[in-house]
Amino acid sequence: MSSPSPTRTRVVVIGAGPAGLTVANLLRGAGVDCVVLEAESREFIERRPRAGFIEEWAVRALARHGLADRLLERAETQAQFEFRFAGERHLMRTAQLSGSRHFVYPQPLLVTDLVAAYADDAGGDIRFGVREVRLHDVDGERPAVTYRDPVTGERQRIECELIAGCDGARGVSRAAIPAGRTVLTRHDHGVSWLALLAEAPPSAEGVVFGIHESGLGAHMARSPEITRYYLQVEPGERAESWSHARIWDALRTRLAASGAPPLAEGPLVEKVVLDMHNYVVEPMAYGRLYLAGDSAHLVAPIAAKGMNLAINDALLLAQALIAHVQGDGSGLAGYSQACLRRVWQYLEFSQWLSEVLHGASSGDRFRAGTAAARLRRLLGSRPAAEAFAGLYIGEEADL
User: Fold this and answer.
1) Distance (Å, rounded) from C-alpha 75 to C-alpha 91?
2) pLDDT score recorded for residue 38
3) pLDDT at 9 exceeding the cut of 60
4) If we measure between CA atoms, which residue out of 192, 193, 194, 196 comes closest to residue 267?
5) Are 244 and 268 in contact (CB under 8 A)?
6) Is the alpha carbon torsion for 371, 376, 379, 380 positive or negative?
7) What percent of the chain has pLDDT over 90?
């Protein structure tokens, strides 16, 4: 049986996460034809647990394109966080120091909004559940993407001018780049975090980092009913080895401080071990394929930067793609370099914060001592605190 005739579009977007959906919405808004391909179902991507912090510059950028109405209506904002160590609480008033806030809006809600804006409101072409996606001739004049239709089982072919690879670390986009055409740089923090979602109200206003010799404990308010917790664990540990009682005992120990309210305990609906590592792909482009989000870089959740970098990539890529269609290719030529400036800045900040958070439990007196010195400087110097807050909240200017 012969395959159906190929269809044609300007841009194929692979992956319906924050990066891919932001690109698709901006292209659709500018009248640039595109097709989005997503391996999972719509229901799955709208429920998949992911990041929850969006920096204010990113919210304003989405709002300028009409993509933040529900976010602005529903999201909580956070203006401060606290360090807890040596039995004491230390507030960092980040909004006061930087002039900006974090928006708390779980990624599934943002994805739901972006899918609705693209598919339901604008009538954009998005194809869920596609299988066996392949990229063809990405370094030539006639690139194409093929996939197997989940209903008919037939191979479909979409010819295009450009491809936006937004399908994450395990997606097909990055794998389509021949060996030796990009450089992958990786850094391992040497620790893992046990990521937890508790059906329990937050026990503090926002983020709490508990720095303790037995390991980090972290609290992050998600909603009035849900709290995100993290526990530092040894690399290679299994989530199953942490019982309900053991988890709450560790959280109480690591988040203890004078005057702190008791933790509100509840059922744990998610329990997974995350290795704390980063990677960067340079350049973030090959031929007519342009990577965005986790396809191009991964930042450990230490500083909550991943979704914000994905949005930054998407905004830059969409702008460059639109300009290319209008006859200006300079944006695509400079796309990778423009993205990587912010990527490397956020990676450096994540590494710096990792040393602060994990130094006390490292078993290394030098690392513990320098981490304590960083904390003292941060808490005792207004210029140091302002510089920290600007990076923690996320700076508007091009980094």
Assistant:
1) 22
2) 98
3) yes
4) 196
5) yes
6) negative
7) 90
What is the mean pLDDT of the segment spanning 378-387?
Answer: 95
What is the number of alpha carbons within 13 Å of residue 390 lying toward its C-beta? 12
**Tokens representing residue 11 in the block:** 């841009």
Q: In what order do the strands lie in the sheet with 125-128?
A: 125-128, 34-38, 11-14, 162-165, 289-291, 285-286
Residue 249 banded pLDDT, cuts 50, 70, 90? very high
Please, which residues have CB within 8 angstroms of residue 196's CB and are 6 or more apart in sequence?
228, 229, 230, 231, 247, 268, 270, 271
Q: Quick one: residue 190, left, alpha or beta (phi over 0 = left, psi -120 to 50 = alpha)? A: left
Determine the pLDDT at residue 224.
85
As a whole number of angstroms, the distance between CA 306 and CA 254 comes to 25
Using CA atoms, how far residue 318 sits from 34, 80, 107, 151, 334, in Å, is: 11, 33, 20, 31, 13
Give the N- to C-terminal CA distance of the chain in Å, as an integer.
Answer: 53
Q: Give the Cα separation of 58 and 297 in Å (integer).
A: 18
Instruction: Report how far apart, in Å, the C-alpha atoms of 18 and of each of 24, 197, 306, 309 are.
Output: 10, 21, 10, 10
Q: For the chain, give the mean pLDDT.
A: 94
Six token digits for residue 88: 């004491």
Task: State residue 205's pLDDT score.
Answer: 82
Pairing of strands 81-85, 88-92: antiparallel
Q: 């391992």: which residue's tokens?
A: 188
Mean pLDDT to the nearest integer, 37-59: 91
DSSP 140-174: SSS-EEEEE-TTT--EEEEE-SEEEE-S-TTSHHH
Is the preceding peptide bond at 202 cis, omega within 30 degrees of 0?
no
Structure confidence at residue 206 (pLDDT) = 81
- The span from the CA of 336 to the CA of 313, in Å, is 9
> What does the pLDDT look like over 310-358, one tens digit per residue?
999 999 999 999 999 999 999 999 999 999 999 999 999 999 999 999 9
The DSSP bridge pattern shows strands 162-165 and 268-282 to be unpaired
Task: For the beta carbon of residue 53, count every other beta carbon within 10 angstroms.
Answer: 26
